[in-house]
From TrEMBL:
Keyword Signal: yes
Keyword check for Cytoplasm: no
Listed SUPFAM superfamilies: STI-like
Annotated source species: Salix udensis
Protein name: Uncharacterized protein
MF-aspect GO terms: endopeptidase inhibitor activity
Top-level taxon: Eukaryota
Amino acid sequence: MLKLIGSLSCIWLLLAISTTAQDQPPVLDTAGRPVRSGVRYHILPAATDIAGGLTLVARNGSCPSLVGQEPIAPVVSQGLPVVFTPYVAGETIVRESSSFIIEIFSRLNLRQVY
């Protein structure tokens, strides 16, 4: 029994190691296209009657450094554009279950990288 568990664990480990980022499906935008590195996107909630897009908010009168949502308004705000960059060098498509960088561009010429 222990040999069987050891063998299955070894096989599982080899399968996990052989899976690369390329095997992961791409994250898709609302048009069904893969999210690409360097392209500006707007993040909106699925239900747009709740709130608007992403924005930077200030806390206690300080410089805006927190990410929040635009409040609900008669016209839904698109919010600030964001750019996704995969953490893997040379990768141009954002993939599921992978690490990536999100850059938020504001009207105040502030750029926050998270």
